[in-house]
Specification:
Chain lengths: 330, 548
């Protein structure tokens, strides 16, 4: 199957998955106890006021009518109108996407920066104290809940040592880039950006550091034991060339796949980290929407998260096939 | 070159690039020692602080000392910036910096003049407001009596504003008959006497510009503002933050702060961290377990203030065993409210014995709380004929300060009576509210914990909706209470009305439709760099904050 056909096939499957997500999320509204009217009307609102609000929001329509209307709006790029906020959901959700993507990418960078060297060191110095240390670190990283780690990082580095900001986003990465050409001082803007993003990125990325360290270690050990490595060594290639040009490069193929998939997880799975750091991304919007019973905003957020996950998976599938010609898709 | 060959080269190139990037970051990762990263981070914090001030003021360092900006962190952000289209405190806090009504309230809850300088009752159902001269909206246009007329009608008339949640907040149970805009005055006529009309106008009915509202979509009005208040919005990030700057043409005393920012964090620990780290000046809802951290910091303090919210356990009058007045009184004797305040709330609460708080019109100072007397409770249960009964207390999770712990303690204390078994059922708030607001009393919970905020500082605003036969949330039908409230609501003499409401509170104490618990305190954490006093109505008036 060519890459083009593969992309089309995966995209069609993705549309099916996204439709399923939409349907499940829409149905959840009707099986969850409590009414959206209670989020809008004051407690002592009369039944007449409640009915009037329900009629104005279209909630007095049969479920299937609401569902069909919602799908029709969605196809036109309209995610509806937030009952609670009085805003267009599309606007609310896409306003949050950059913050979530920024945090996910930053966490991935943290994971790459720490895990690959650690994995390589661990593999090349097998059964040494470095290897044991890296294994211990990996175990700790996988076992540590990121919300707890986030709170500890805040208490230590933001409250106790006053090095980073406790929470919030401050400047955006776009502002950092534009400061290169704009009037704002680049270094100051960059440092301010780092002061906000470092702790949440570490908190979110630590789990993946641990995961990818283990993956890199096992991959490297596997590659270093293969015959092409022996052949390279036999012909007198320098050890650094053997390790980093040959073994590491081949190890990176599964690592890149996992990183890509984790990026999708990070986009949808940063809810708790975002709450701890008051990071204004999709995760915070999800929490707010649940608390406020803001179903349109919740639906919009989950659809975007689900869609991002599906897209990342498709892209990773395609890249994997592109990187490794041995992979054959039926 | 064949297609295959080109793919091969491209793949190699890509792999090389990825490998190169990974190697680069690897080297960077290996090379960067912990010390180095800490140093960088230290510089980050310092640079950030300096840069922030410079950017905000737009002035060199020497100008920093003259700049005062204030920040507040709430538990939750607003539900849009339309001042009429919401019914909760966070939005009220955020829009109150920008919008004002004809009247307002001071720190103690007393009524003060805002956009009206005088107000009078010209007839039983008619009131007149004299408007302040020289008030402008933030876009520079003057406030007209037509704008005031429109704003009142927008709140009260569905044809003007749609089905807004504040419907009825100015009319107080009457219908709005007419609003007449005159020269510098507005006359409002209701379909009958509205005895607390000025109290209602002091809390609700922010003035908006008619042309601005009519020319914009709802979604625009929820993201932008055009009020008359001491601050105007400069940046609005829905659900994240609102930034303000001082409105220089404000009619009253200008705010001391040149700018203000309100953000939110649902995590109380995060709010406290922000305060201690000096990133914000005021944080709301400091829970008891965080009090010591705030008090332990040299830079911050705890500022508690009695709120306008009363917490209680309501008992439905029409079902056994709560249909028995003796049983209801027994429940009041069974619960040790003072112990709950001391141990669960660390002293941040005030015991109550009637539905009306001590700061409100109609509070009866002669009524004492029931007090804790388990033996008397057991005796009353016996006399009620319900000894051995099983009851279930339903309580919301996380809606009110320490609600779960309060409910657990109360349920345990009731259960410890020898002749009553009490279980606790914790419920998600929205789900509980669904039942509490059911249209038929038969569908409402029999025994549940609830809180009630009353920003109008008037007994009738609590008793009316919760304890009269026609109240939308009532769990009681009692002719005497109904008659007293009806009498109070038809009485234009404030002294006589106060007496009637006091009498009603005595009756309700004796009837015991609730286990009277406590007045909730709002507990703020504040920076010692800022002089600001909290208010009972839960608003945060940032325009009164000044440097300390």
């Amino acid at each position: 199957m060519s890459l083009g056909r593969l992309a089309i096939k995966r995209s069609l499957q993705g549309v099916g998955v996204i439709w399923g997500v939409i349907t499940v999320v829409f149905a959840l509204r009707f099986v969850t106890p409590g009414s959206v009217i209670n989020a809008v009307a004051p407690l002592d609102a009369s039944q007449e006021t409640r009915q009037a609000i329900a009629a104005e929001l279209g909630l007095d329509q049969p479920i299937y009518v609401q569902y069909v209307q919602y799908l029709a709006d969605l196809v036109q790029g309209n995610m509806g109108y937030s009952y609670v906020k009085g805003l267009e959901v599309t606007q609310m959700v896409f306003q949050r996407v950059p913050a979530t993507v920024e945090l996910a990418v930053a966490a991935t960078v943290v994971a790459i920066v720490l895990s690959i060297p650690l994995g390589v060191l661990s593999a090349t110095r097998r059964n040494s104290p470095v290897d044991y240390g890296a294994t211990l670190f990996s175990l700790g990283g996988i076992s540590t809940p990121n919300f707890w780690l986030g709170v500890m990082l805040i208490l230590l580095f933001a409250v106790q040592f006053d090095v980073f900001q406790t929470s919030g986003r401050g400047v955006t990465s776009v502002a950092v880039v534009t400061s290169l050409v704009g009037p704002e001082p680049f270094v100051a803007t960059l440092l301010e950006w780092l002061s906000y993003i470092t702790l949440p990125a570490i908190a979110l990325g630590t789990y993946f550091v641990a995961l990818i360290t283990r993956l890199t270690r096992s991959g490297m050990l596997d590659e270093l034991g293969k015959s092409y490595v022996r052949a390279a060594r036999a012909k007198g290639a320098p050890e650094s060339l053997v390790r980093y040009k040959h073994a590491l490069r081949n190890t990176l193929i599964p690592v890149i796949t996992v990183l890509g998939l984790q990026l999708g997880t990070l986009i949808g799975g940063a809810v708790i980290t975002e709450a701890v750091f008051a990071w204004p991304g999709l995760g915070t919007l999800v929490i707010q929407s649940i608390n406020l019973r803001d179903w349109p905003a919740l639906q919009g957020s989950l659809i975007v998260i689900g869609t991002a996950f599906v897209i990342v998976n498709i892209v990773v599938d395609i890249i994997y096939g592109y990187l490794d010609p041995r992979v054959v898709y039926d | 070159m064949s297609q295959e060959e080109r793919e091969g080269v491209d793949r190699r190139t890509l792999l090389k690039a990825v490998g190169g990037a990974a190697a680069t970051v690897s080297v960077a990762g290996c090379g960067g020692s912990q010390t180095e990263s800490t140093e960088t981070a230290t510089q980050t914090g310092t640079e950030t602080d300096t840069t922030e001030v410079d950017e905000d003021t737009g002035t060199p360092d020497e100008g920093d000392e003259s700049t005062f900006e204030v920040g507040a962190t709430l538990g939750q952000m607003d539900s849009g910036l339309d001042p009429h289209d919401h019914a909760e405190t966070p939005t009220n806090i955020i829009v109150s910096q920008v919008y004002e009504g004809l009247m307002g309230r001071d720190k103690e809850g007393g009524i003060v003049a805002k956009l009206a300088t005088e107000w009078e009752r010209v007839e039983s159902g008619t009131v007149r407001f004299t408007l302040r001269d020289g008030v402008t909206f933030h876009d520079g246009d003057p406030v007209t009596s037509e704008d005031v007329r429109y704003s009142i009608r927008r709140v009260e008339t569905e044809e003007v504003g749609g089905a807004l949640p504040q419907d009825g907040d100015l009319a107080g149970g009457k219908t709005l008959e007419n609003v007449e805009a005159g020269d510098g005055e507005v006359t409002v006529t209701f379909g009958g006497l509205n005895p607390i009309v000025f109290s209602l106008f002091a809390t609700n009915g922010q003035v908006m510009q008619q042309s601005w509202v009519e020319s914009n979509e709802n979604s625009f009005i929820n993201r932008n503002t055009n009020g008359t208040g001491p601050f105007q919005v400069t940046d609005y990030q829905s659900g994240t933050s609102v930034s303000y700057e001082r409105y220089e043409d404000y009619w009253g005393e200008p705010a001391a702060a040149e700018g203000a920012t309100i953000t939110a964090s649902s995590e109380s620990a995060t709010r406290v961290n922000q305060l201690i780290a000096g990133e914000t000046d005021i944080v709301t809802n400091v829970p008891p377990q965080e009090i010591s951290r705030v008090e332990g910091s040299e830079a911050t303090s705890v500022d508690p203030v009695p709120s306008t919210r009363i917490i209680f356990l309501q008992m439905r009058y029409d079902v056994e065993p709560f249909s028995s007045q003796q049983f209801r009184q027994a429940m009041n004797y069974a619960v040790d409210v003072q112990s709950i305040i001391d141990n669960v709330l660390q002293g941040f609460g005030e015991i109550t014995g009637q539905p009306t708080l001590s700061q409100f019109t109609g509070h009866n100072p002669e009524v004492d709380p029931y007090g804790h007397d388990p033996e008397r409770a057991e005796q009353l249960v016996e006399e009620s004929g319900h000894a051995g009964v099983d009851i279930t207390l339903q309580a919301p999770i996380g809606r009110y300060l320490k609600d779960v712990e309060i409910a657990q303690t109360a349920a345990n204390q009731i259960d410890s009576l020898s002749n009553v078994n009490c279980e606790l059922q914790q419920r998600e708030f929205n789900s509980l509210v669904q039942d509490v607001t059911a249209s038929n009393i038969e569908d409402r919970p029999r025994f549940n914990l609830l809180g009630w905020g009353n920003a109008e500082f008037d007994a009738a605003q609590t008793i009316g909706p919760l304890l009269t036969s026609d109240g939308p949330l009532t769990i009681l039908k009692n002719d005497e209470v109904d008659a007293l409230i009806e009498e109070a609501q038809g009485d234009s003499d404030p002294d006589a009305r106060e007496q009637t409401l006091q009498e009603c509170n005595q009756v309700l104490h004796d009837l015991a439709p609730w286990v009277f618990l406590h007045q909730q305190f709002s507990v703020y954490g504040t920076s010692n760099d800022v002089e600001w006093q909290p208010r009972p109505d839960e608003l945060i008036d940032l325009w009164t904050a000044s440097p300390n």
